[in-house]
Amino acid sequence: MEETTNMKDRNETATTLTQLRLAKRSPEYWRVTFDHPPLNIFGPEMLPQVNEIMTAIETDEQVKVVVFDSAVEGFFLIHLVHRPPGPTGLHPWPEILVRLSRAPVVSVAMIRGRTTGMGSELALACDMRFASREKAILSQFEVGAGFVPGGAPMARLSRLMGRGRALEVILSAEDVPGDLAELYGYVNRSLPDADLDRFVDALAARIASFDKQTLAHTKRLVNVASLPPDIEIESGWNACVASMAQPATQQRIKWLLERGFCKPGDAENHLGDFVGQVGR
Amino acid sequence: MEETTNMKDRNETATTLTQLRLAKRSPEYWRVTFDHPPLNIFGPEMLPQVNEIMTAIETDEQVKVVVFDSAVEGFFLIHLVHRPPGPTGLHPWPEILVRLSRAPVVSVAMIRGRTTGMGSELALACDMRFASREKAILSQFEVGAGFVPGGAPMARLSRLMGRGRALEVILSAEDVPGDLAELYGYVNRSLPDADLDRFVDALAARIASFDKQTLAHTKRLVNVASLPPDIEIESGWNACVASMAQPATQQRIKWLLERGFCKPGDAENHLGDFVGQVGR
Amino acid sequence: MEETTNMKDRNETATTLTQLRLAKRSPEYWRVTFDHPPLNIFGPEMLPQVNEIMTAIETDEQVKVVVFDSAVEGFFLIHLVHRPPGPTGLHPWPEILVRLSRAPVVSVAMIRGRTTGMGSELALACDMRFASREKAILSQFEVGAGFVPGGAPMARLSRLMGRGRALEVILSAEDVPGDLAELYGYVNRSLPDADLDRFVDALAARIASFDKQTLAHTKRLVNVASLPPDIEIESGWNACVASMAQPATQQRIKWLLERGFCKPGDAENHLGDFVGQVGR
Questions:
Q1: How far is residue C117's CA from residue C129's CA, in Å, rounded to a whole number?
Q2: Higher per-residue pLDDT: A41 or A89
Q3: Touching partners of A (3+ C-beta pairs < 8 Å)
Q4: How confident is the model at residue B42, as a pLDDT?
């Protein structure tokens, strides 16, 4: 039986937060579900919750695998409307991504629906990504909105799919559907939507049956070979913050917001087309 | 209306050079077209022109994207008959490739026809590569002719497609058709020939509508994650020059030239087969 | 005509060892065939033979290409039952893999049948891998058996297929059939079984016709761009040895051995399924 946990206090069993849920399918296999309808926008109020989950993942003595998924039809997780950051700003975001990649637990993103901006960055910080062939759409839309992506897709996509495809994905800011995401290595595999849940669940349960120390040690050695240096994550974040301050960027974001960006409707449902119009 | 520019003097509007043309589809979106029939051989006389284009790309305040294409049926751009280099030799070549990769402008190779040797190296130095599924053939034929490739495919292909496939492409010196080029990541994608122009044009126009500073800063961060160190480019060039001096290499090149290498006909149309015969 | 050589004494022409055969198709093109029925288990007694072949590959003045294949139906090469290592232990194994990758000779794994554990590691240390689409099954099963793989798939798979797919292959310990191996870049290509021998033979003969120095220099430059630092190989081996000492690991291996691991039958024919059961 699943145990659903409120992140405010992991000892309570009641669930009061609906934006983010942690369900323990077993002590070894956890699910984190984004449930922030209608768009699964990653809002700043989610940061402390995600941070708390990260700490739990890092310190729990039993958990071996965590699957991230969505309860919102059509959206895995999307961007936040960035504002000019204050002194605390969004700095926790790149740190959370770094911690997730380095955590001694296996993380899996199960991607169904739109996965842009921070959603894509979270998926890229996970250890593996599996997508719905029909229903997944990934993108880093930021360059189209006039700013440098802040969660290090430059560092991660380059290493995942090679320089040429990474530059295309990031600089075109275009939607990437399931088939292309698989061809490019943006995701491990795209599966028929009807098979996705079963596949990811079986994989997670399988990994959860293995030895925790062996999983952690082996992942650590893959990290040595594959993770970007932290300085690249930091530089990317700083470049994002700096680009946000440009008046041209603020104008692009304003143009987008006026046309429905961050609201249900055409703008978010066709974000790739949309950012292609802002500068014309 | 397009503005076509003579590279000898960018202030003239007349076009006197036919080997290489620069056309500005808009101030932000340029096309560089190789037009050196019948084979689009990269001759040494092209180097100053390419150098001048590189300087323009690096310093122009408006250009955001440059597409490289060919006006010669059957050939995108191919090799130069290397000669034992003099004191100046071809040293500008690796430098041009390095500058193209680092330029604060997005470069796209639109590949139709044979793309070997320096043609492949130019395409690899571009930020993205799109190929005609039916009409593109890429290769690094050099090892088959007895010399180390000079324009750093060892550095770039290894990072683009992984060690195993890079070693196969480079050490087999074999022709790589569009489908295989896509599977291996030699190109971003291979498209049906009928769709290629429209696709590349739409992508270039889209990128040209984005913010120049944001494109440049974002590309710079991808460069940190993905470009080979300059020393690898330099070492490759030195190894190429050294291998050229071997008598065995000179004999292979002589054998090839006697059978039509660098002339229109079977040798160039089936270069992969051809270099497979030289040592038998 | 082929010359078959006994590794105990390369000057003898008689073949007394059946586990491993070296056949010289020509002075330039060698074949190393694993022939240790019924499972082609890599036994410790093979190490000195492989070591001797490595020395021959490194020092022979004529050999340019070496193809590794199997004479055992259903198995390319599989794991050794690891025992807690003594002072000499298996240390030669990672060293052999490093030497193979750095050898100034082109190595090709022709993969038909099960290729797990050390078999996969040997294939990954080769310069290229070609697989039977129908008959190849690759895996790193070790994590499922409770220990860190010792032959550096963490270092090599990460660079070959990217972090996400490498983590999936290694941490899931799952069987990877030919199609998926090609999609992930685990192998260069998977070919129809009926075409595999001809393809690999033609490629090897082609490379054998090229200039030995040019092959060696070019490969050396690809190595600079693509080989993991030796320290990663060493760390992986040490982590493997350490994990072997865990009581939980010994229990998993005992469970597996009791159910037919390392013997002909279901356990080895369905190893992926099998290691998925050990911890349930």
A1: 15
A2: A41
A3: B, C
A4: 87
pLDDT, tens only, B95-114: 999 999 999 999 999 999 99
ω into B38 cis (within 30 of 0):
yes
* Nearest chain A alpha carbon to C180: A189
Each residue of B17-67: pLDDT tens digit?
A: 568 999 999 999 999 999 999 999 987 788 889 999 999 999 999 999 999
Beta strands B20-26 and B3-5 are antiparallel
Residues A125-136 have pLDDT tens digits of 999 999 999 999
Q: Please, which pLDDT band fits residue B91 given cuts at 50, 70 and 90?
A: confident
ipTM over 0.85: yes
**How many angstroms away from the CA of C130 is the closest CA of chain A?**
20
- Residue A82: what pLDDT? 55
pLDDT at C17: 58
Which residues of chain A approach chain C closer than 8 Å at the C-beta?
Answer: 106, 126-129, 159-161, 182, 185, 187-189, 203, 206-207, 209-211, 213-215, 217-219, 221-222, 224-227
| Cβ within 8 Å, pair C147-A214 | yes
Kindly tell me the sign of the dihedral angle through the C-alpha atoms of A93, A94, A99, A100.
positive
Closest to C218 (Cβ–Cβ): which among B143, B163, B279?
A: B143
Residue A251 φ then ψ, to 5°: -65, -40
- Contacts with B256 from chain C: Cβ below 8 Å: none
Q: Do B280 and C185 touch (CB under 8 A)?
A: no
- How many CB atoms neighbour CB B2 within 10 A? 10
Chain A residue numbers with beta carbons less than 8 Å from the beta carbon of C159 are 225-226
Euclidean distance between CA atoms C279 and C158, whole angstroms: 26
Q: Which of B209, B221, B223 to mutate to test the interface with A (most CBs of A within 10 A)?
A: B221
Model's pTM, two decimal places?
0.93
Q: What is the DSSP letter of B228?
A: P
Q: Each residue of A15-37: pLDDT tens digit?
A: 445 689 999 999 999 999 999 99
Position C12 scores a pLDDT of 37
Across chain A, mean pLDDT equals 91
CA–CA gap between residue C55 and residue B121 (Å, rounded): 35
Phi (first) and psi of residue B137, to 5 degrees: -135, 115
Tell me if B164 and C128 make a contact (CB, 8 A cut-off).
yes
Read out DSSP for chain C? --EEE-TT-TT-------SEEEEESSSSEEEEEE--TTTTB--TTHHHHHHHHHHHHHH-SS--EEEEEE-STTEEEB--------SSTTTHHHHHHHHHHHSSSEEEEEEEEEEETHHHHHHHHSSEEEEEEEEEEEE--GGGGTS--SS-HHHHHHHHH-HHHHHHHHHH---EEHHHHHHHTSSSEEE-HHHHHHHHHHHHHHHHTS-HHHHHHHHHHHHHHHPPPHHHHHHHHHHHHHHHT-HHHHHHHHHHHHTTTTSTTHHHHTHHHHHTTTT-
Q: Are A202 and A120 in contact (CB under 8 A)?
A: no
The number of angstroms, rounded, from the C-alpha of C161 to the middle of its chain's C-alpha atoms is 17
Minimal Cβ distance to A239: which of B161, B189, B217? B217
Tell if the CB–CB gap between B222 and A158 is shorter than 8 Å.
yes
Q: Which residues of A touch B106 (CB under 8 A)?
A: 167, 171
**Interchain CB distance below 8 Å, A143 and B210:** yes
Q: Which residue has the tokens 């078999």?
A: C119
